[in-house]
Write a structure and sequence with these properties.
eight-stranded mixed beta sheet; three-stranded mixed beta sheet; 13 strands; alpha/beta; 38% helix
């Protein structure tokens, strides 16, 4: 298939600058001359992305079709479902509004799709952090990235929706695709991809199709990433519970695995923290993911209105160098050992 059979969907919520960067990066795609569609799904109640969209549309290459869709019902699943309902092309590529696409991104996705014809094709994500982020920098770069080191080919495990290509003809379930119960917490894509896998769909990896992730300032903090790590840890337990019928045997297995991870990595983190080891955040992340497998029913909110209501962490370092985090309206932190609630 050619780029004309493709729509790039960008769900967005109150991020005009990030949205501008994401869409503008598509103008420079190597396949832009062949033409493709870009659909912006604005999930804000007040249609805050419309002005940015109109500026982008005025600058867009003539070969690209830009479509604005207002989805006022808050929630990431609602935004994705609204976009999927509007799309008319057989291929859908998802790009997050805090990502940008290098020149050959779509070429890499399409080439891999043409070779393997998978139901969903995923690509790498490379983190771009501000230069002044120094504390736990290696951890943050790894956390926001997706770099498993695979070569292009079939893979067994699906990834997140940002930077993926979906062949709609291989998605056999009825719409809406994305589970609206996950509107605030995320994980709606995990459930979709598990259903695709259960229906016999295959996944592929496009090593030549990376995108750049530009995390928001308020997200470059342990008080955010550890909450996300907890939610990521909940994933296997949640999927086991929501299978039809529910797989309680798998749920118990994942809870036991979670307890082991919490104990092992928690002890390693404690030792590294006492020693002041600069990579201790990696162990804390693994411990918190283990905790998520145990407390699978605890729902955290990351999307929709939760995006703007989340407190912003600010650094506070005591005389012994202990990491803490407190809410503040302006200063944003890269510190804080435990997640604030």
């Amino acid at each position: 298939m050619t780029p004309r059979h493709l729509t790039v969907v960008i769900p967005t919520y109150n991020r005009p600058d990030s949205l501008y960067r994401a869409v503008e990066s598509l103008f420079r795609q190597g396949v832009a001359d062949e033409g493709f569609c870009v659909l912006v799904a604005d999930n804000s109640a007040d249609a805050t992305a419309r002005e940015t969209f109109e500026m982008l549309k005025a600058r867009a290459p003539e070969t690209l079709e830009l479509i604005y869709l207002h989805v006022p019902e808050a929630g990431v699943a609602n935004a994705r479902n609204g976009a999927v309902e509007r799309v008319t092309t057989p291929l859908i590529a998802f790009l997050d509004d805090d990502q940008s696409a290098p020149r050959h991104w779509l070429e890499g996705l399409l080439d891999t799709y043409e070779t393997f014809r998978a139901a969903v094709t995923f690509g790498p994500v490379e983190t771009v952090l501000p230069e002044d982020v120094t504390r736990h920098r290696a951890y943050f770069e790894a956390f926001f990235a997706r770099k498993p080191g695979f070569e292009s080919g079939y893979i067994a495990k699906p990834f997140g929706c940002g930077n993926c290509l979906i062949d709609t003809s291989q998605v056999t379930m009825k719409k809406p695709w994305f589970d609206v119960r996950m509107n605030d917490s995320g994980g709606e894509d995990d459930i979709l991809f598990e259903r695709i896998r259960s229906a016999g769909g295959r996944f592929a990896w496009a090593a030549t199709a990376p995108v750049h992730e530009h995390p928001l300032r308020q997200r470059i903090a342990l008080s955010y990433t550890l909450r996300r790590a907890f939610a990521y840890g909940q994933g296997p337990s949640t999927l086991a519970r929501r299978k039809q019928p529910a797989r309680y045997d798998l749920l118990v297995m994942w809870m036991i695995i979670g307890a082991g991870k919490l104990g092992l990595h928690g002890l390693v983190w404690l030792g590294m923290r006492l020693a002041g080891h600069p990579r201790r955040a990696f162990q804390l992340d693994k411990a918190v993911r283990g905790l998520g497998k145990i407390l699978f029913w605890k729902q955290l909110r990351f999307y929709g209105t939760a995006t703007v209501s989340q407190p912003l962490p600010a650094p506070s370092v005591d005389t012994h160098g202990a990491d803490t985090a407190h809410p503040a309206p302006l200063e944003l932190s890269c510190s804080g050992e435990w997640a604030r609630r």
